[in-house]
Request: fold
Amino acid sequence: MTGKIIGWHKLRHTLGSLVRVLGTDIKVAQELLRHANSRTTRETYTHAVSQTKRDANTKLVELLLPGRVLKSQHPFAPLPL
Reply:
C-alpha cells in the first residue's frame, strides 16, 4: 500500500466510529466533530462496529501477535510493550 494517503476527512470518520464504539453520547460526539446537528454525526460520520467484528479483530491480533492482547483490554487500546 505504498503511496496511500489518509487525509483529515478519513480521520474524522474514524473518530466518529471510535467514539460510537466507546458508547459516547451522540451529542458529545457531535461536539467533538463540531457538527451543527447530531443527525450528521449519527448518519454520516459514525459507522457501526459490531461485537462480532471486534471479536474477529481481537482473534486476528492474537494470531499475529501471540500473548500481546489481554482479554480485558479494549480492542483499540495500545498493545502492551
User: Anything to note?
Assistant: Residues 11 and 66 are 28 Å apart (CA to CA).
